[in-house]
């Protein structure tokens, strides 16, 4: 696959270990959900290395010093419904005060294009660093549509985080939205004829919520 400047594939032993368990068809709902959160936290640490900070004065038991902190209300978490919900707590572990918005999409049966059926975003999101969440980046259609909806609402600083990605989806997002930073923990081989990622891990939403 072509190397894109706006795409980072994370290569960390802890993530690889957790992905191996995540893929296993015998991994139950509880453990699967916990792994999604843990992997998301590790990815968040890596993807926010350059987040803007502000200098503040902190009084230690010995003296006052100058320290850097992430400003309040500077980060917004936006999961793509429904599977993206499973990643929210993983980001909140590192950014507990981050506001949360939601984007719901469905695929039009005639055009096969993603359509928005729900969108609720925090006030002032256009001034925040937005992290868009979805465990799987398959065709890239939903991700591109969600990014487009965010841009229409004035968002300029957008990151996309996916746990598993297919080359087809990475290509579509990277070329359609070159200004968006894309973070993927694992790049899989391909999509099958039904649009599922191979080797993948099945339907992430079903495995997170215990549905079929």
Q: What proportion strand?
A: 25-35%
Rg calculated over all Cα atoms: 18 Å
Please report the total strand number as a whole number. Answer: 13
Gross morphology:
globular
**Low-confidence parts:** none
Give the integer mean of the pLDDT values: 93
Structural summary, described in words:
The chain has 212 residues and is an alpha/beta fold. It has six helices and 13 strands. The longest helix has 19 residues. The two termini are 33 Å apart. 35% of the residues are buried.
Write a brief caption for the model.
With 212 residues, the protein is α/β, with parallel strands linked by helices.
Chain-wise SSE layout:
Elements: E1 7-9, H1 13-23, H2 29-47, E2 54-59, E3 64-69, E4 75-81, H3 85-92, E5 99-100, E6 102-107, E7 114-120, E8 129-133, E9 136-137, H4 141-152, E10 157-165, H5 167-176, E11 181-187, E12 190-191, E13 197-198, H6 204-209
Parallel strand pairs: 1-11, 4-5, 4-6, 4-8, 8-10, 9-10, 10-11
Antiparallel strand pairs: 2-3, 6-7, 12-13
């Amino acid at each position: 696959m072509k190397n894109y400047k706006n795409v980072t594939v994370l290569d960390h032993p802890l993530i690889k270990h957790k992905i191996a368990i995540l893929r296993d068809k015998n991994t139950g709902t509880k453990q699967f959900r916990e792994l999604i959160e843990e992997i998301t936290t590790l990815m968040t640490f890596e993807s926010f290395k350059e987040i803007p900070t502000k200098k503040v004065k902190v009084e230690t038991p010995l003296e006052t010093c100058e320290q850097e902190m992430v400003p309040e209300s500077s980060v917004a978490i936006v999961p793509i419904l429904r599977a993206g919900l499973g990643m929210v707590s993983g980001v909140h572990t590192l950014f507990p005060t981050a506001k949360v918005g939601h984007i719901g999409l469905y695929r039009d049966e005639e055009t096969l294009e993603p359509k928005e059926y729900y969108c609720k975003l925090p006030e002032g999101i256009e001034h925040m660093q937005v992290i868009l969440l979805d465990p799987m980046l398959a065709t890239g259609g939903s991700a591109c549509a969600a990014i487009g909806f965010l841009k229409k609402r004035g968002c300029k600083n957008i990151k996309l985080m996916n746990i598993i990605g297919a080359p087809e989806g990475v290509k579509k997002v990277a070329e359609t939205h070159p200004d968006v930073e894309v973070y993927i923990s694992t790049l899989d081989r391909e999509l099958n004829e039904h649009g599922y990622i191979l080797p993948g891990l099945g339907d992430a939403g079903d495995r997170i919520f215990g549905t079929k």
